[in-house]
Amino acid sequence: MKLWGRIKRLSLLGLIQFGWLFITHPLLILPTLGATKRTFELCNELFGNNHHKSNKANAFRHALWNILLCQKTLKRTKNNEKSVTFTKEVTSLYEKATKNENLDEAMDLHNNEIGRQLFLIYFNRKEPEIVQILQNLNRKAQKVEKIDDIRNHANLLVFISE
Questions:
Q1: CA 20 to 30 Å from 50, out of 36, 44, 135, 148?
Q2: How many CB atoms lie within 10 A of CB 118?
Q3: 147 neighbors 103 (Cβ within 8 angstroms)
Q4: Which among 34, 46, 51 has a CA at the least distance from the CA of 108?
Q5: Full-model pTM
Q6: For residue 131, what are the CA distances in angstroms to 10, 13, 26, 56, 59?
Q7: pLDDT at residue 52, rounded to an integer
């Protein structure tokens, strides 16, 4: 799905909340859009359209999105924690605004968090290294069937379907 298609899926309240977030952080609009676009480019190259399902490719995409958001906003914030905080706001708001099923939302929020944790460890690594680190982690991703299962995999990516 194209970025514009995802934006059109947001609720009116979600659009207003995003508007407010970016009004209060105007210098982070372009880095956010750039990171989001780059995430989709990389995932399309690696997985085709397969990353739009609730699978390992999707888990990879969510973690990558958070890492790239943190990296790109770091150029403006000049502070790892500020980048992580902003990224958490953006990605959590997006997950709430898109109205996914509860398990899908929990999976996405979990994989987003894994991405932010990885950013704090590997913030100075280049994109190819980040992709390799995530691919290695993705091989260990765990399938979950209910929200409680996610809590048992605190340091691993999770997915719902093959």
A1: 148
A2: 21
A3: yes
A4: 51
A5: 0.92
A6: 28, 34, 28, 14, 13
A7: 84
